[in-house]
Task: structure prediction
Amino acid sequence: MRIALVTPYSWTYQGGVNRHVQSLAEEYISRGHYVRVIAPFDPPDRLSKVLHRAEAEDREIPDYLIPVGRTFGINANGAVSNIPLFPSGVVETRRAIEEGDFDVVHLHEPTTPANGWDTCLSSDVPVVGTFHAYSTKPLPNYIANAVGARRTLNRLSARIAVSQAAAWTGRRWFGGNYTIVPNGVDIDAAPTGPKPETDHLRALFVGRPDERKGLPVLLRAFSALVEHAPARLTVVGADPDDVHRILAHPELSDHLDLKGRVSNEELWRQLHEADVLVAPSLSGESFGMILTEAFAAGTPVIASGIAGYSDVVTHNHDGILVPPADPQALAEELQWAHHEPERLAEMGEAARESSQRYAWSSVADKVMDVYERAIEVPEPRDVADRVRRRFGVTPSDGLPWAPAVKLPSLDPVPEGGSGRRKGWIRKAAIGFMALFGLGLTAIAAQKIGVDQVAEAVVRSDISWVLVALALMASSLFFRAWSWFFIAKSALPHSGLKRRDFASATMIGVLMSATLPARLGEPARAISLARHTGRARDTLPVVVGTIVSQTMLNILAILLLGAFVLSSMDSVFHGGTRQILLFSLIPAVLLLAVIAAPTILGNQSGKGRLARVGAVVHSVMLQVRRGLTVFRHPRNGAPAVALQLFAWVIQMLSCWALMFALGLDSQAGLAASAAVLLAVNVTAVVPVTPSNIGMFQVAVIFVLHKGWGISTADALAYGVILQAVEMATAVALGVPAMLREGLTWSDLRTQAIASAPVELEAYPQRKRSQEERREVTYTR
Result:
């Protein structure tokens, strides 16, 4: 049979999908089939490093590989996917399929745009699609279906899923019929024989330093383990520099063996010599080939109890499942692995037996059955049926259509089962507050006259609006630069770069624009702390740097108030004084933070209250470290200057909008300063997302009362000013989130992963199987 294996992922940035494709190709070639792998190929040059932010592997091109151009690294599903986005790759893939005269085209990850979709739509031979990914996020899948993913996938002659998790993804978002064929493992290549003897626990991690692989969680757990048991952790696949960057404690490096990228032979050796493989992924894994390879080498695993891994690991038989993002649970299981080697050895034998289910000889037979079924799909009954298949209205696999259906989650049930309910309550509360803010704006517009407000908005000069947008955006970069100098004093050896502060600032602005109660502040603190590699230790200090920046903001507000008072008549002085007094509330809170360590003192007593007091005292001391910039003029002077200059730029942005609405003759720079003062004071604790409603009320109050501008023009000004702020937040925040590969839930997970881990001395008696941790899932 003539077989084309098409993969969208770069051959020189190897991942699980390409390893699967390579092994499947070599298995079929050994059986006498004609096989060609069509895949992108990035040479190990400077351009590849720029496009992927990592060096390409220097690999030889095998005889069966047809390279089809470069790829671009994008953050997707918590990892970096190296996929072809260039037209040349699509053209070369199509040409290779047309010239190959293949009997079947086997497309891996058909949901991938460009190569994947074009292969589905353009190929005249049967196309079999294998779904590898596990995706639970609605938005990207809704967008994909909106632009035609479901109809495109209906062109497939057969569908394969590598696991129940991958099949769940297909059935949930795209519909269709799926044959589950797992990833295979080369049983014959796995080492045999006893493991080398040692007096310490040998743990192994294999994977890239992607966020979802959970390496920071493992390092946090391992730092607690080595205090109670002799152990070494070998890290394969992750660059040593990346590992050192995320170390919670530098002294942990004495217990690490960092191998970086290794050959297949070396990987098999590491798998065989390890006592246990640790796979602490947070989410997004559909199968986990490394688990089955560890099984083949006779090595049990301790893995996160996520959907893809729970399909492979039988809890308490060939491995252990632990809650994801829980370093405490992971540390406890590693401690058990050291103290009960006999039970661990029994699991290793069970793991080797379990690996037989994934032997390539069996997997290749199942895939071949799907090929034959795809080739034998009946021809369309008539012209109408042919047209429906051609346009993806009906499936091309000859099976009854199975529409997409809402399925229960495969992820672990949160403890107490109330996580989802609390999530819905939180979302409902945010939605209610947003509607409340919009209602305030609508009521104001109704009383003023919607037509007058709309007319004022329509007649605004777009060129001045764009100037205001550019000024607003540039002010954020100056704020980030100021933060950099503040942190330089508090964290002089952190290795943080200016772009880290820029990304964290933009993420914080985006979160503040979409969530109430200034949740952008903790978001940017967590986002920056994760770059230090010691999030638990440095997060309070980072919070302290934000406190320092807040003090500079209060100084800016006071200066704005003084400028406004000196530029206005006495009629409006009383209201301005009230605004200034209200702005001093956060200043009082800041003084409390500064004085807290002195008031609490060094808590050395006994009891729960004393321990809590000691923890609070320690955290407050770390927060106060963030204020050290004011003792270092070399960093303090530029920090103050840049922060105040950012406020000046924001004031100029507000002034530009006066020109946009033709209000510059009535209200000048002082009015712009008053608007900036009012909206920032009302946003001290915003009640609604982005302070909608209160924002417009504050603008109307200032411009109408202070400068006699009509309420219609004042409301129009408030609407446009907030639109400029929102547009700035989205335009800068979304790219920053993509660069960091983060969502709001990811930021929350980072905080969980940085939680302290404390192990007690291991009990002398062994835990029975009934006492072992149970992990519950929905199916």
In short: Residues 281 and 362 are 28 Å apart (CA to CA). The radius of gyration is 30 Å. The first strand starts at residue 2 and ends at 6. The mean pLDDT is 82.
